[in-house]
Design a protein that fits this description.
By secondary structure, this protein is an alpha+beta fold. It has 2 helices and 8 strands; from the N terminus they run αββββββββα.
Length: about 140
């Protein structure tokens, strides 16, 4: 009876460790503002096999140890883990334009992050009908 309890406990512990490792957020990028006052952190949670990646966007001030959550979004990427090619950032003063790209042109999401006052993020809505027409012509 004792041996059976040990086997069940060990199996349960191994299962919890595996789920924790595969279900944790991974850091895609840590991007500094031009004057290094702010940092934008992009984290993602990969799907089990393939499908939608949950993307979380955070910011942190240089002097702070705590990161603040800004937004969650999803992008579809049918393949390997996300890489440097899945995001682009440009800065103008302390306003960042962050573009996240998934598996296709239609999976591009753009965010404006204003760090000048209270950090605020705004998703830029795109007209996908013109993008779809362009991709069909190719």
């Amino acid at each position: 009876m004792k041996k059976r309890t040990i086997i069940i406990s060990s199996t349960l512990l191994i299962f919890i460790i595996i789920v924790t490792i595969f279900n944790s957020n991974k850091t895609l990028a840590k991007l500094n503002s031009p004057d290094s006052t702010y940092q934008i952190i992009i984290k993602y949670k990969p799907p089990f096999l393939k499908g939608t990646f949950k993307i979380s966007i955070y910011y942190k001030e240089k002097s702070s140890l705590i990161k603040e959550h800004l937004n969650d979004t999803n992008i579809f990427y049918d393949g390997a883990h996300l890489s440097d090619g899945n995001y682009h950032i440009s800065w103008e003063n302390n306003i960042a334009t962050l573009t996240l790209t998934g598996d296709s042109i239609l999976e591009s999401k753009e965010f404006i992050i204003n760090m000048l006052t209270v950090p605020k993020i705004t998703e830029v809505k795109k007209d996908t009908s013109s993008i779809m027409l362009q991709s069909n012509l190719m």
